[in-house]
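FAQ: What does a multi-protein file look like?

Like this. Sequence, then tokens, then the next protein.
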Amino acid sequence: MINDSALLESQSLRNSVLERTDVLDRVKALSLLPDGMHVTTAMVAAYFGVSAEVVRQLTKRHREELEVNGMVVLRGADLRNFESDNMSLSLGSYPQARRSLTVYSRRAVLNIAMLLRDSDVARQVRVYLLDMEYLARTQPVDNSVHKDSDDLDDLDARIDQRITRILGKTVVPMFNTLIETSGEHRKELIALRSGVQRIERRLHHHHERLKRLEGLRDDRPAVGVMAAMDAMNGHAFERHIAKLLARDGCTNVVVQGGHGDRGVDLIGLTADGRRMVVQCKRRAPYLTIASSDIQKFIGSAKVLYSAEVALFVATCPFTPEALALASETGITAVHRGVLEEWSAGEPLKALE
């Protein structure tokens, strides 16, 4: 089962469980404002048992993600209207000094639970979420519904094509003949023909759009990218990373993992010619990369290989100390969340 730290590292994993807001009340009762929909920063802090400053700093670091999920900063008329609907907000010690107010939906609060490290309540929420996600993955799935849906999509596409052919090859030519032989109703027939041609064009555009959307769906990576990597042995994982590097334009990529590799599993050149080295660690997702692992890699990457780009790629999270050390020494830490996005097609920024 995936460790709760995976939620801290992987935004895609967080997004997959954001509908489970009922988990919040299973762990602890979440008090809401009178509108029954929102909470303030102070209320979020009280729920998770942390200071309001901790919540404010977290929202600054993850502002974009939280705003997508219902965090809003109210100002001006919006703030006045909100306060008038929630009179308890105006009972603070300095109501006149308030220029803005940050409020959170239940979805945003759940999002914070998956980002907040130093809170027992947040950890309990993550455990509940992962238990539910594990049950969802291990329960038998009836694929007949999806098959029926796919059959209906195919049927719709065939109907669109058939109607388009009928309009283009039968109805429009019929109007052309009528127009040529009719004088009294010529204008009406021309207008009707124009309408039919517009419908034909719309159906054609609709069919092309469906094909494009279907193509995008087919191009998406299969579900279970990380599960596939978790099942690889060390050498297969190194070859997988080599393919990702080549996909992103790297050249002269050589897999040299094993005895005598001097602490570096892959070497090569980035697309713009910089010397690159990579360390690959395929570990269980509940383990971590420690600062000692980074220290060993620093010597090999910087001293032995004089690397301009050094990647430490792992299927597990990094400890905060390891992340800090990597940042200070110019090592790019590709933790589980980043690796998942990279494998799913997102370019790795360090290679750009």
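And here is the next protein:
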Amino acid sequence: MMGDMASEETRTVKSTTARPDANAGHSAADPEVAAAVPGPRAWAVRLVVVGIVLSALNLRPAITSLGALLEEVRDGLGMSGSVAGLLTSVPPLCFAVFGVTAPRLARRFGAGAVVCAGMVAITTGLLVRPYTGSTAGFLAASALALMGIAVSNVLMPVIVKRWFPDRVGSMTGLYSMALALGTSAAAAVTVPVTEALGGSWQSGLTVWAVLAAAAVLPWIPLVRDRGPASSEPTAGRDTARSVHTRVEGAGPVRHVHARVEPPALRITRSRTAWALAVFFGLQATAAYITMGWMAQIFRDAGVPAGTAGLLLAVTMVMGVPLAFVIPRLATRLPHQGPIVVALGVCGLAGYAGLYLAPAAGAWAWAVLLGVSNCAFPLALTMVGMRARTGAGVAQLSAFAQSTGYLISIPGPLLVGVLYQHSGGWGLPIALMIGLMIPQMAVGVLAGRDRTVEDEAAR
């Protein structure tokens, strides 16, 4: 908070008729200035923590619950394999299209308000989509839920950087752990819950709207409260703050406004930003192929539907402990390349197992792919590490995630097309193996100890 105030220029009025002297100012240590700008309230900080955890729990069930019931949804709506591949490509498409709008919306309405609206959109989409009765309606309602996920995806690293600047690793770990928990829970219990509710896939998908509705609540008190970031140019907006100053001699306290405009950051000039965007895109490709198709791969290999859902859950649940450990480890290393390589090797081993013996070693392949999917919390952590300022984090998060999700769109769709036309999983798995190599290469580049501000300036 005091660092934010140090960036603001405050001016003292010398007389009732004289102009403000730009050379005479209050520093961040001035007690009058400090008293005028209170620190973040304890209740607000607690609400932010609860909001982060509940929001993270809701950022994947809309996807993994569908993956567990994809065959039933396809039969119920009459989808072909290619159309199902399109359905699994909708998440990255929505994340790319709507995620890029998140910083602008946050500047206008505040990050808390945007995340609150995002949770409302998720709730509404999950309630509506099972009952639309058509593929087009199902896709539209899914897009509404994914729009809410998209803006929250982008703003979570920004919120963490603003409210917990000295705990980026641990808070990113907590957020990533909750995200992995929600992902795995949806994969594990959707099929049993569907059976308990009478076998209706509509009921099995709708139940996740309850969790989304709960995530709306902690953000409601923060809709108008922008917290410690209100004076910070981290979201890229102009900053104006009223500071109590007293005219020399006698007289009333006057309010003087100081406006600070953050310097423009040309993010596309940064090689690290591009490397991080491609890394994000390739790991997202692997993740959405896994979430959308892995249960079907096991089912086609003769694994029962309930067990296939559990295997997908195992893959997702691996992220619960590792998503907390990996960000903390990454922030302690000057170069995150070794972690990128280790995760990539696990992915290659898991895909090779799916290709050679999908049923015989199913549990081992599920574990290995779960470890590999922890490239996501690593990418989020690197977003916070590759920029020095909150403004840089906001721009880098929007750029890396929007560009990355654009890159990831063809992957799940191509897997569906290859599966439809080849009649098996050999070619799709070969594609996954082929994409893991460049993911490791660009991840090593993104992990170098550099900042986008320095590269953009050059």
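Q: Is there any per-entry metadata?
A: Some entries carry free-text notes. For the entry above: The longest strand covers residues 239-246.
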